[in-house]
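Study this one:
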Amino acid sequence: MTPVVKKLVARIDGLLQALQRAQDEIGQLRDEIAVLKGQKA
C-alpha cells in the first residue's frame, strides 16, 4: 500500500469507530427516552 492509501485506510477506520460510538450512544438515548415515556422498565 502506498502512504496515501494507508492514511485513507486509517482515516476510514477512525470514522467507522466514531460511527459505532455514535450508534451506541443513540441506542442508549433511545432507551432512556423510552423509560422517561414509561414505555420501558
